[in-house]
Design a protein that fits this description.
By secondary structure, the protein is an alpha+beta fold. It is 27% helix and 23% strand.
Length: 533
């Protein structure tokens, strides 16, 4: 086998004669494509060519069982990436998945998310975090993980293609699906699982797990001797349920900061050295800085995207970003967050980082609502209104309960209030706020040092808007499990899985963890069957 590369302008693909000339008459396969914008922006296509004696063997998915309707049942709590791919793996291995999702199906939850953005009304069971597809279904569908340490990620990518994703995700260096495409894929997975004899149940918030199965808040009981717990990074009640049963939990580091929004044209100009033109992909960025012994890094960058409210309960403000497959919106946004370690938060409770996270989210809500009350009591200067009282509250024309505290980037670093706010994609509205004071000092101080250092031209600018808070980067709690069996160390029959258990971060790693845990559960059931239990 030999490898070779072809570069070409962003406006075209490699020509067949170019590829065949480089392949030298051998069978060739495209393995990866990426944009190289270090100088003149170009596509880079990487190929492998195979001699007859080592002919290319294409990847094929493992076979699924035709029907698992009469096979032993495994409860899968949560229908996010970890839960969905655990269910698919169980069908491959001959077991019946019973998927229990506290939220609504992926179609119905759209209406609750629209109401959340438009009216600021939080449905605690159906929002940007809870519901079929999990948080990843409406956050661009990034599939950046290329690490093979968890296993062969092709099983994830090829299944996504099987259920409707573009084959481009198999070769792109930074693959994504888009929030407009993911819901149909999620629905296709559910229909496949149920067609093969598995079950899906919505509005099924699990409140008790026993050796016999799972009981839901509405009284429904689902029998299963094994339970895969794939509840996501925001299911705080699950940690409390386990703790109440005497289960062991561990505080786990996570990251907290702000969403940063720039006009997309500024990011395009910077990353493409002024050479961007219509038809060329919207530019991305990423960076990592070390500030005072902690990482400060960009997270979940959404080119051409929008900002959305991700609160799962009333009285808090949480932000996330999303973008559709075309990534053609006016704005670019990304989380810029600071790593928080267990030793950074005082106390010995395993839930102390979760409580810290919640306190910051509540603080942002309280400030925004207080500012809105003040604005109602005297004329507020609108984003594009006339200059008037210099002390008037600066806010969006239409704000609701999910309005976010916001500050221009340079103002934040200089420690002064923003006297005006730029246009934003965040529909619930924004209020000018001293984020340099509202954020925890260990976060604010590091962000203020990091922003001027970012090595992206014109990144540090007052045209950039900071909105708070970005806090749901990963779980602040880990549910400890046995390294080999994946079983919860405290309660037999429970198998913690994915982001909520503290073992993954993002769609691909969560899906891989779901596959691995489902494999471990099947092995345990096979062993029990062999032992005659």
């Amino acid at each position: 086998m030999k490898t070779f590369e072809i570069s070409c302008p962003l406006t075209r693909e490699p020509r067949l004669k170019e590829i065949e000339a480089k392949a030298g008459g051998l069978q060739w396969v495209l393995k990866k494509r990426s944009i190289d914008a270090r100088k003149e922006p170009v596509w880079r296509y990487q190929y492998e060519a195979y001699a007859p004696e080592d002919a290319y063997v294409p990847y094929s998915l493992p076979e699924y069982c035709d029907s698992v309707a009469d096979r032993p049942a495994v409860a899968v709590v949560g229908a996010g990436p970890a839960g969905m791919f655990a269910a698919l793996k169980l069908i491959m291995l001959g077991y019946k998945p019973i998927v229990l999702e506290r939220g609504k199906n992926v179609h119905e939850r759209k209406f609750d998310m629209a109401r959340l953005s438009r009216e600021g009304v939080v449905d605690p069971e159906s929002n940007y975090c809870y519901g079929e597809g999990g948080a990843g279904a409406f956050s661009d569908g990034k599939l950046y993980t290329r690490s093979s340490k968890r296993g062969d990620i092709r099983e994830v990518l090829y299944q996504l293609v099987k259920f409707g994703a573009s084959p481009d995700i198999l070769i792109d260096a930074h693959p994504h699906i888009g929030s407009d495409k993911l819901p149909a894929i999620v629905e296709n997975i559910r229909n496949f699982v149920t067609a093969r004899g598995g079950e899906y149940h919505f509005g099924a918030r699990v409140v008790e797990i026993s050796p016999e199965g799972c009981r839901c808040a509405d009284g429904r009981f689902f029998a299963a001797s094994k339970v895969i717990l794939a509840t996501g990074h925001s299911a705080r009640d699950v940690y409390e349920m386990l703790q109440a049963k005497g289960g062991s939990l561990e505080a786990k580091g996570f990251a907290l900061g702000v969403r940063v929004e720039h006009p997309q044209e500024k990011i395009n100009w910077s990353q493409y050295h002024g050479a961007w033109k219509p038809g060329v992909p919207a530019a991305e960025y990423s960076f990592v800085e070390q500030v005072d012994g902690r990482g400060v890094f960009s997270f979940c960058m959404c080119p051409g995207g929008i900002l959305v409210p991700s609160s799962t309960e009333e009285g808090t403000v949480v932000l996330n970003g999303m973008s559709n497959s075309a990534r053609n919106g006016k704005f670019a946004n990304a989380g810029v967050v600071v790593q928080i370690e267990p030793e950074d938060v005082a106390g010995d409770s395993p839930l102390r980082l979760m409580d810290f996270q919640h306190e910051v989210e509540k603080k942002m809500y309280d400030y925004a609502q207080s500012a809105l009350v003040e604005a109602k009591n005297r004329p507020a200067r609108k984003m594009k209104g006339k200059k008037s009282d210099p002390d008037a509250v600066v806010c969006s024309p239409e704000c609701n309960n999910m309005a976010a505290p916001a500050q221009r980037m340079e103002d934040f670093c200089l420690g002064k209030m923003s006297k005006s706010l730029p246009e934003t994609s965040y529909r619930p509205g924004i209020v000018s706020a001293p984020l340099h004071e509202l954020l925890p000092p260990m976060v604010a101080d590091r962000l203020r040092k990091a922003f001027p250092r970012v090595g992206i031209r014109n990144y540090y600018t007052n045209a950039a808007l900071l909105l708070a808070v970005e806090s749901r980067t990963s779980s602040p709690v880990r549910i400890p499990r046995d390294a080999q069996s994946c079983e919860y160390v405290s309660i037999p029959g429970i198998y913690p899985c994915g982001e909520g258990a503290g073992y993954a971060g993002g769609i691909v790693s969560s899906a891989m963890d779901g596959i691995n845990v489902a494999t471990a559960v099947a092995a345990a059931l096979d062993a029990e069957k062999g032992a005659g239990r």
